[in-house]
Give the backbone structure.
Amino acid sequence: MKKTKLLKGKEGLGLLVGIIVLFIFMSIFADNFLSLYNMHNLLKDTSILLIVAVGMTLVILVARIDMSVGSTMSLTAIVTTILLRDGTHIVPAIIAGILCGVLIGLLNGYLVGVQKLNHWVTTFATLSLGKGLALVICDGQIINANSDHLKAIGHNSSVFLGLHVFIWIAAAIFVFMLYVLNKTKFGYKLYSVGGSEQTATLAGMKTSTSYISVYIISGVLASIAGILLASKANNGNATIGDGYEFNAIATVLIGGTPFAGGRGGLTGTLLGAVLISTLKNGLRFIGITPSLQFVIIGVVILIVIIVDVVFNERRKLEEIRRVEQ
Amino acid sequence: MKKKIWAHLLRNSSIILLIVIVIVASLNANDPVENFFTVMMSQAPFMLVYCLGMTLAIIRGGLDLSIGSVAAFSSYIGALLIIEGYIVPGIITAIAIGAAIGLFNGVLISKINVHPFIATCGTNWVVRGLVLFILAGKKIFGFPEGFKLISTGSIVRFSNTMKISNPFVISIVIFLIVLFVLRKTVLGRQIYSVGANPDATRITGVDTAIVTTIVYIMSGMLAAIAGILYAAVLDCAEPTIGYEYGLMSIAATLIGGTPLSGGKGGVANTVVGVLIIVFLNNALAVLGISHLWQQAVFGIIIIFAALINRIKERQLMLLEMY
């Protein structure tokens, strides 16, 4: 018991050290990286990634995956901006956008939770479905929202108590989900379903509702992130959320929630989000071309995943040994 | 009796679907025969080649999402040599690169135990980034005539559109080789066995890691061949080759009737799946539906094919019980 607690502390410490090293490295090699303006920007980027990654954490906690978050972001951005362009009020436009996330989450949840289809391929299919619908709706064009309200959310000047609105939204979502996951029945259920679906079923839980609700939460959070992304530029296009699924998965894995499910939590995800956004922001600052950034981040994510898998195998072996003793 | 007919219908549901789609496409085309030939000779062969690799990976109980970027990367590197006149070395290099990336995937999956989906998705990401980085938006074009003939030439020629094209023959030969490997060799049976139950297979003394690695190497090589064929018909190697390969090949394999659970199905099913996909594409085009719908439609196809496979398995199990 003591050993596992110590290990947990070490894992978080390793992440912190990683972030600090990255910060020192970047501030040496990139001018203006440590400026107040860039730090604020970095936090803004972190908040969008964090919102998506919080949903992904819940999905990975129940040993599933959600590949469709990126396309949900794009679809939401397109739907919201198109409604705003056509003169709808901002509130129904945002509700319609979030509804897209609910629907995609419901579809994912039904197929994975009730029909028990392979979660990788199902969410991959909804990824292409969502992105395809976004392409069809916007006709392959960039949609200019032309909305002062949307602009007001994402504009640089919309600060509250010194911090940007994005950061407050992300913080609120994070704290709320932290409460849900650690202090409510629902959160406990997720951990037990992720630990072993069979055991949870035998204990009398209805696992399918856990899967459905987790996917809906992930879809809704992706939608919120999509709206924030759209508000940043005051327009939407069908590729706005591309690649976010990978960044979110990497964030969650770095944060210490393994694919196997049942372990980990949101605090690690927060540190992971800071690490990934720092890396992205710093690479941009050093002046590396976008396609090479793509490669570097891809390699980092692959390494993270391999390390996760190797650690998990070792842990399993250790557990077997403990049981045998 | 009724149950028997039902079982037959279930087993051959993909062939029935194919016939329906071909009829829909033909009814709406200006010249049905010409349309049929165009699809069969110049669209289906390219797709069949890379779908065979995906089918192997799915039978083994995994997936290979990297085929699209492998096709782009290997055809680009091959094109660098081919444009200088070294056609055969260029093609061999391209296939070798495909095999190398396949080897990387295979080791990642079999030795390190990374989930096939995430491993191949990661390689896809990295290799696509490399292609974009190295090419930087450039295109290579103006290949020697001899190379272009690989894809544009034909063996038997009745008219401009009605011909037996080279890619068709090449894809049939590759198909027969893969079919032979799967059905008549020890390796083929081992692939099925690993897909059905990897642990039991390992206990019986099969080196499952090597079987898995060979499957991904074959998949990478087939993707490279598809990339070369495609570069030859386009007369151009560009970074955007193969963006949709992963999605299309999963759709084709699943709808052909090879389930994701592994150990079942086969490449003959995939031929039917590929024909369904190309004729569906053709029908969408003939009916005047925007190509923007393509991605959404394939997403829906994958979901339905996976659902149908699930229902089929359940029903057939029930029918066999009684």
